[in-house]
Amino acid sequence: MSSATAHEAHHEEHPSGIMRWITTTNHKDIGTLYLWFAFIMLFIGGAMALVIRAELFQPGLQFVDPQFFNSMTTMHALIMIFGAVMPAFTGLANWLIPMMIGAPDMALPRMNNWSFWILPFAFTILLSTLFMEGGGPAGGWTLYPPLTLQTGHALPFVILSIHMMGLSSIMGAINIIATVLNMRAPGMTLMKMPLFVWTWLITAYLLIAVMPVLAGGVTMLLTDKFFGTSFFNAAGGGDPVMFQHIFWFFGHPEVYILILPSFGVISSIVPTFARKPLFGYSSMVYATASIAFLSFIVWAHHMFTVGMPLSGELFFMFATMLIAVPTGVKVFNWVATMWKGAMTFETPMLFALGFIIMFTIGGFSGLMLAIAPADFQYHDSYFVVAHFHYVLVPGSVFAIIAAVYYWLPKWTGHMYNERLGKIHFWLSTIFVNLTFFPMHFVGLAGMPRRIPDYALQFADYNALSSIGAFGFGLSQLLFLYIVIQAVRGGAKADDKVWEGAQGLEWTLPSPPPYHSFSTPPVVK
Amino acid sequence: MARTAKALGSGLAGAWVWALAGAAQAVQPYNMPVGVTEISREVYDLHMIIFWICVAIGVVVFGAMFYSILKHRKSKGHEPAQFHESTTVEIIWTVIPFAILIFMAVPAAKTLIQMYDASDADMTVKITGYQWKWKYDYVDEGISFYSNLATPADQIYASAKKDDNYLLEVDNELVVPVGKRIRFLITADDVIHAWWVPDLAVKKDAIPGFINDFWTKIDKPGVYRGQCAELCGRYHGFMPIVVRAVEPAEYEQWVAEHKAKSMAEADADAAEAG
Question: How far B161 CA lies from chain A's nearest CA (Å)?
């Protein structure tokens, strides 16, 4: 007994101060690092969005040069996608997957450390390009050549930083797959895993499949620029459209990488606060897998206007429309889970309900975009901007916020301030709609995306969007305050935290021990 | 706290009043234009059909959700049911959306096939995108000119009063006849651009080294404005498109004038070079 205690104590030892975080191999510490990193990036990317919205508040050029405006739209996207949403989900995975499957830690702890610590360097490099000769990348996050090849000194640095982000993501994904497949507690069969684990397992496979494709694409850009190749240069026998095919073969699965883990989060939260098991568990798993499969065969719907042959247009239109079926199944299952439950509306549930409604609105505009003839009108207009922000902001970001409120008491051992949480929800919901809903209108009326100045008939809606954006940005400072408050103290959270909570993580104390399950629990 | 809430409430109320007042005085467009071609009307119809389908699904799904949120609350003493599976229900809500999609796919495919058929054109115009202007070549007439933004810099950078067509006005408009099938060939000289005129429901990428084609047949004389739709660098937002559709007789007259002008310019160039 005493030797066992000594053994435990030895494992609890770790350096303190900054070295604890630099050398850590602990899934909770690394999860925390990922989440704080994502939070910082959310504010940096958000500040860039506010530069964009300030310039677009009224017609005319008031604040920034058009080239800088373009680098703001480009950097905002790269930072939000690779710096905020993806690391936030990886942070959640690190914290939650070992606790949910009854494991002591992740399968590959040292790689886990490395995959996180690449990120601050990658983003320092990316952000430093703003100060280089020729400015930051300004060809859009989609990096289409030949425009991207006009980037100044920033180009090789942007490409290097994308390679580093890709490495980090792939290592994170390998770790998650290794953990999920090897470290489940006895009795935890695949079809008993919480949906968050399932959606992350599938997401990890998507990451491994497509990040190398992006790496290949950007490397070809690099050799075109510096080593005389002509992959994307028609004058040398190449084809600029080929880059778009490569990019979107990565890019479409990428958008599901950004949303599938949210489905897992929502599938955890809704049953808890409806006090009723998730409706259609197995159909949820199959729907996730179907969405992942379809994500590989729909990429060219991002390219309906490049002049593909008719047969290509028809194929990608039909395949894209099909995605509505499994996505619909998910939404119906969530509603059926709520049906005849006994619901309460704590902050995580509010964000989850907001997610379901607003993600579905984004899904509707997605279905509209799938209709190729109509897409000729929507494509590259603000309608598209409205669409993907609806699925990403009140979609992915709301799911991440919901997850933080839901598991924060478990992580810290303290309840957050419920009243402030609710205010945060209502402010976020009102402002996010004020920001993005008018974008549907200006887009349909003919406003192209990625322009720093616009015709007068778009002025009113743009003013509304800008007010909404500043409101939404400021509301997130309240979120920061609530999180810090809960980390520092507050009412003691019990182990189960939520009356209706189900799952292994709720059997651990709040906060959980440094090594989650040193003895595997038995799942019946 | 109560004071903050009150201040917040009045702030929000103020924003709403402002928004509503804005909406009331605004005749600002908020929907896709019906446009002036047969294709643009079909596209508009497709857009509205899919929109109303989405609205209908939304009413059913959100209706059920809000009913549940209002009725199935713990605070109302509702006891949770424990059902969590029904293959029948799952099959129903897989099959119904599938049927709706097929219903939608048929007219969409029909319109798309029509849009792709650029045969039997009455005339051909070649469009070339440059950073940051358009060039139009009337292939059969030998007319060729650049079309640049005409909005003065002091309206963009300074506070000079912006005129009605701010950023949507050019020095040389693309003049075309109504009632004729016009085939466009489109390419670019430097980076990718896209030629978009919402009233014609056409948007096609201009890709360096490749030629895309599309067609239109305009029913109504008028001036139709559009913009470059593919990010093309610093002045992407400043290369508008203006199409002036006129009666065929007026078009013939315009062609005659411009042929003479083009010829005179060519002679002048030759003289200069010589």
Answer: 10
Nearest chain A residue to B76 by CA distance is A342
- Per residue in A396-436, pLDDT (tens digit) is 999 999 999 999 999 999 999 999 999 999 999 999 999 99
User: Residues near B97 by Cβ (< 8 Å), separated by ≥ 6?
Assistant: A324, A325, A328
Residues from chain B contacting residue A461 (CB–CB below 8 Å): 28, 30
> Tell me, what's the pLDDT at B20?
54
Domain boundary among B116, B133, B149: B116
What would the pLDDT profile of B140-197 be if each residue is shown by its tens digit?
999 999 999 999 999 999 888 999 999 999 999 999 999 999 999 999 999 999 999 9
Q: Among A301, A307, A354, A303, which Cα is nearest to A324's? A: A301
| Mutate which: A221, A355, A377, A420, vs B, most B CBs within 10 A | A377
Cis peptide before A146 (omega within 30 of 0): yes
Q: Is A374 on the interface with B (CB under 8 A)?
A: yes
B104 in the same domain as B58: yes
Q: Please identify, among B68, B94, B116, the residue that sits at the C-terminal boundary of a domain.
A: B116
Which one of B205, B238, B242 makes the best mutation probe of the A interface by having the most chain A beta carbons within 10 Å? B205
Which residue in chain A is spatially nearest to B227 when comparing CA positions? A448
* CATH code where residue B24 lies: 1.10.287.90
Statement to judge: residues B135 and B172 lie in one domain:
yes
Q: Is A185 on the interface with B (CB under 8 A)?
A: no
ipTM of the complex: 0.92
* Same-domain status, B97 and B144: no
pTM listed for this prediction: 0.93
**Alpha-carbon span A157 to A353, nearest angstrom:** 41
